[in-house]
């Protein structure tokens, strides 16, 4: 009797196991979109987190991406894949749905960033070493083009690589002071157009969300250069010349970034280089509208998607702080001390929340972008760049 | 990687043997070695790469710096290199710290 009962229980248990296993095998994975997903770069460990911005949580960690000490990402048009550009020339295609590496190549010795073409078929990378850009098929990561940044001084480091409408990429040459356009719209080899004398040491660039203005910031002189892509013939124009007013430049302990630099209302919001100021420039005339004195050397100023406020973080040794600037008045309306090494900020697409990486606290902090109330702390190992999949549908991001 | 403490003892010894004539070399760093190592990796790393292989700034691995004296390197750290993106660090760190960093760079094998 006892034996029978034991046997029966065993049989039921066994059946349960088989049933459970069968169910698991037969179960389709839960369907989901990727529009509210994103990645957080973990710069010290060559890994990233796939995160869910709606639930404010980490879904998974993906490892094996090489040296991510300077890293950025763009997304495929379906917002499923992130293309991650690492410091070591690594280009890694990460599948957000399966949280795994779909493809990975090391295409150069030292890279700074990249872009994806408007049709989503080409991924381009800007390289320091060897200086130039390389362009890859977005599906296979097979090389499509290699464009060395040759000038009379050898090969220049390239920076500020942006996509422009019509399968074009724009980038600038740090050493040579040039901006090049690589046009992939036709069959065969890309058409390369070069503009020399855009200014000394362009350090980064942005393209406005309408794809019209390519703006390169200059490190070697006070000023910036804009290329209006709607004009014929194309002609780079210097603006904000001499904004330093002849004063000695303060030391810059970290280069500002322009790529997600802000367009707020009718203004471009730009970092002064070597000055603790944010510059407000009229979007059509490129004349100065005003300045905001800030806490340190600005690194990122990211407009909340509605443009009403701009969040600014700073270079070492002022990198524990964020200041929030009101666009209409240029006044600082909030200062947050978040902890050591605030590296990056990313807004949810409609701007209700902002995610902030605080490297030395090993945290990503999530804030309500209106009340400044903290909504969540997400653990991450030395987090740096935060990139949401919604970037897939924005030019220049 | 050797522990920070062990490396510091070793570096201090190196500095004493290598530059006994320089009073600068014998100075204790004002900051602790762990903080300085962090500064090198994270903040110098903004331009030189966290693994010091270079970026906008040059490769700083020991093999590339071979032949340079700690004093030369610490002067570059303190005063920067005009015409380049290398800023002067004098406003933020002491001469002893700069020399510690120079010796650290010369001793690092890189990764």
Distance between the first and last residues' Cα of chain B: 10 Å
CATH superfamily of chain B: Cytochrome c-like domain
Which structural class best describes the helix and strand composition of chain A?
mainly beta
- Count of individual helical segments of chain A: 1
Helix content estimate of chain B? 55-70%
Q: Which sheet architecture does the biggest sheet of chain B show?
A: none
Query: Would you list the SSEs of chain B in sequence order as H and E?
Result: HHHHHH
Q: Which of globular, elongated, flat, extended, rod-shaped describes the shape of chain B?
A: globular
CATH architecture term of the domain at 107-249 in chain A: 7 Propeller
The CATH class name of the domain at 107-249 in chain A reads Mainly Beta
Notes on the protein architecture:
The complex is a heterodimer of chains A (397) and B (111). With 397 residues, chain A is mainly beta. Helices cover 6% and strands 48% of the residues of chain A. Chain A contains 1 helix and 34 strands. Chain A has a 4-stranded antiparallel β-sheet with strand order 3-2-1-34, with no helix packed on it. In chain A, strands 4-5-6-7 form a 4-stranded antiparallel β-sheet, with no helix packed on it. Chain B is an all-alpha fold. Chain B has 6 helices and no strands. The N terminus of chain B is likely disordered. The interface between A and B is medium-sized, with 27 and 20 residues.
Short description:
By secondary structure, chain A is mostly beta strands.
What structural keywords apply?
heterodimer; A: 397 residues; mainly beta; Methylamine Dehydrogenase, Chain H; four-stranded antiparallel sheet; 1 helix; 6% helix; B: 111 residues; mainly alpha; Cytochrome Bc1 Complex, Chain D, domain 2; 6 helices; 56% helix
Q: Topology of this protein?
A:
The complex is a heterodimer of chains A (397) and B (111).
Chain A: H1 2-26, E1 37-42, E2 47-52, E3 57-62, E4 72-75, E5 81-85, E6 90-95, E7 100-106, E8 110-116, E9 122-129, E10 132-137, E11 143-148, E12 150-151, E13 154-155, E14 158-164, E15 168-173, E16 178-183, E17 191-195, E18 202-207, E19 213-218, E20 224-228, E21 237-239, E22 262-264, E23 267-271, E24 277-282, E25 288-293, E26 298-303, E27 309-314, E28 321-326, E29 332-337, E30 342-347, E31 353-358, E32 363-368, E33 374-379, E34 383-388
Antiparallel strand pairs in A: 1-2, 1-34, 2-3, 4-5, 5-6, 6-7, 8-9, 9-10, 10-11, 12-13, 14-15, 15-16, 16-17, 18-19, 19-20, 20-21, 22-23, 23-24, 24-25, 26-27, 27-28, 28-29, 30-31, 31-32, 32-33
Chain B: H1 4-18, H2 23-26, H3 33-48, H4 62-65, H5 70-79, H6 95-107
Helix pairs in contact in B: 1-6, 3-6, 5-6
